[in-house]
Amino acid sequence: MNSLKTLGALVAGVILLAAFYGAAFKNDSFSANIETDDGEGVRQVVHGDRGEFSLNRDGLKIKASWRGDYELSEDGEDIASLDKKLEISREEGGHSERAVFERDGDGVDRSYYLDGDKQGDTAETQEAIRGLLAAFLGASGVKAEERTAILLRRGGPDAVISEIGAVYGDHARQRYTAELTEQADLSGDQLRALLEALKAIDSDHDMRMALGAILENETITPDATPVILETAGRIESDYDLRRLIETIAEKPMSPEAVKLAIKMIGRIDNDHNLRRAAEALLEQDSLTPAMAAEIIDLAADRLDSDHDMRLLLGETAPYLAADGDAATAWVAALGAVDSDHDKRLALSDAANEEGLSDDVMRKLIEATEKIESDSDRRLALETFASRAKTTPALLEAYETAARGISSDSERDRALDAAGLED
Q1: Sequence-distant (≥ 6) Cβ neighbours of residue 420 within 8 angstroms
Q2: Residue 243's closest CA among 277, 267, 216, 271?
Q3: Whole-angstrom distance, CA of residue 117 vs CA of residue 42
Q4: Mean model confidence pLDDT for the chain
Q5: At 168, is the secondary structure helix, strand, or coil?
Q6: CA 323/CA 35 separation, integer angstroms
C-alpha cells in the first residue's frame, strides 16, 4: 500500500477529529472537505449518530461510514462492540475490498467482500478485515486515544512511537503524538525517537501541533530544545513557525536553543508573524543583550512594516539600558523606520526607560533629527526635555535638534520645554 506521505497537506486544518467525534455523539453536525484540482482529497461528515469518512489519494481510496459509536478490542485491531453498524472499503490497483461490522445481539457480525464477492469466514478473511480497520484508523486518526492506551499496555511508549512511524496520515501522527505525550512520560531516547518519526510529517499545521503537544505534556530540558527546533525546521508556514516559537519560548531554553530559534524567526516572511515570534522570544529568561541585538538587527533587515518595527522597538527598549550591542542595534533599527509618526512613538518609549546612560540618551536625542515632520520631532524631543537638562552635553544635543525644526512655533515649544530660549 502507498505510504501517503503527502496526505498531511490535504488533512491539515480540516480533520479535527477530536471535535469531529465529540460532535458525532452529541447529536451535532460537522462537515469538512478539502479537494485538489484533480479531485483528490479528504472528506468527513457527521450528522447525529451517523458519520462518513473518505480519502482519495495517489490511486488509493478509503471510505468509512457508521451509525452509532463503537469500541475497539483489547488489542486495538478489531471491533469489540458497536451500537449499530460500521462499514469500511478500500480501492487500489484495480481491486476493491469491503468490511462490514454489524451488531449481532451482544456481539459483532463481520463480513468481508473482495471485488464485490462475499468471502467465507477464514483466517485470511479475518486478517483482511483487521487490515481494513487499521487502514481507516491510520488514515483518519480516529480512536487515537484508545489505541494509544492499548499500545502503551502492550509495549510502552516504544510501541506507540513505532505505530506513529507506520500510520498513513500526518493528522494521525499528530493525534497519536498528542495522546502519547499526554498518557506517558518519555525518556530522552524515546523523545528523540519520536522526533525522528515526526520528520515524516509534511503538513506544517500537524508538525506544529505535534511539537506543541510534546512541549505541553513532556518535561523538556534546555538541552533537548535544539532537537525539537531542528525538527521544526521542516515547517514552512509563517503562521505555524510563529505559533511554535511562541510555545517554545514559554519553556526554559539553553543559549544554543535561543540561537536556533532566532534562525527560525529569520525564515518568517510575514511582518506580523515575524514581530510576534520575536516578541515571544524576547520574553525568554536566558536571552542576553547580545541575542536581543541579533533579533533587533534581524527585524530591521526583514520587516517592511513601520508599525511592526515600531512595536518591536518598544518591546526591546529596555535593552537600551544594557548599552553595548543592543543599544547600537536599537538606534540603527530606528533608522529603518520611514514613518515619522512611528519614529516618534518608538523614541517616546525609549525616553521612558530608566537607567539609560548619558551616551545612549544623547544618541536617542540625536536620532530625533531624522524626523522630518516638525510636529513629530517636537513631540519626540519633549519626552527627553527633563533628562536633557541634567547635563550640558545632553542639553547641547537637545538644543541642536530643536533648532533644526523649521516651524517657528514648533521650534519655540521644543526649546521652551527644556528651558531654552530662541
Answers
A1: 395, 398, 399, 402
A2: 277
A3: 27
A4: 87
A5: coil
A6: 55
Has residue 89 been placed in a domain?
Answer: yes
Residue 305 reports pLDDT greater than 50: yes
pLDDT band per the 50, 70, 90 thresholds, residue 20 = very low
- Find out whether 222 and 254 touch, Cβ atoms under 8 Å: yes
Length, in residues, of the chain:
422
Q: CA-to-CA distance for 90 and 108, rounded, in angstroms?
A: 21
Q: What is the mean pLDDT of residues 197-208?
A: 89
- Which of 11-25, 79-93, 243-257, 268-282 shows the lowest mean pLDDT across its residues? 11-25
What is the rounded distance in angstroms from the CA atom of residue 159 to the CA atom of residue 171?
18
Q: Is 370 part of any domain? A: no
Strand partners, 44: 32, 53
Please name every residue paired with 114 in a beta bridge, in sequence order, or none if there are none: 97, 117
**Domain assignment present for 195:** yes
Q: And the C-alpha cell for 263?
A: 534562525
Residue 38 shares a structural domain with residue 132: yes
Q: What was the pLDDT predicted at 400? A: 96
- Position 233 in a domain: no
Beta-bridge partners for 108:
103
Residue 71: pLDDT over 80: yes
DSSP characters over 66-119 = EES-EEE-TTSSSEEEESSEEEEEEEETTEEEEEEEEEETTEEEEEEEETTEEP
Pair (32, 135) in one structural domain: yes
CA 389, distance to chain mean position in Å, is 48
- Angle, alpha carbons 74-78-80 (nearest 5°): 65
Cβ burial of 67 (10 Å; 0-12, 13-18, 19+) is middle
Q: What are phi and psi of 141, to 5 degrees?
A: 80, 5
Domain coverage including residue 134: 28-139
CA distance 232 to 260: 10
Q: Do residues 178 and 99 share a domain?
A: no
DSSP 344-371: HHHHHHHHT-SS--HHHHHHHHHHGGG-
User: In sequence order, what are the beta bridge partners of 420?
Assistant: none
Phi, psi for residue 266 in degrees, rounded to 5: -65, -15
In this structure, what C-alpha cell is assigned to residue 410? 514648533
Condensed to tens digits (0 to 9), the pLDDT of residues 355-381 reads 899 999 999 999 999 999 999 999 999
Statement to judge: residues 124 and 194 lie in one domain: no
Of the candidates 123, 139, 155, which is a domain's last residue? 139
Tell me the torsion sign for CA atoms 213, 214, 220, 222: negative
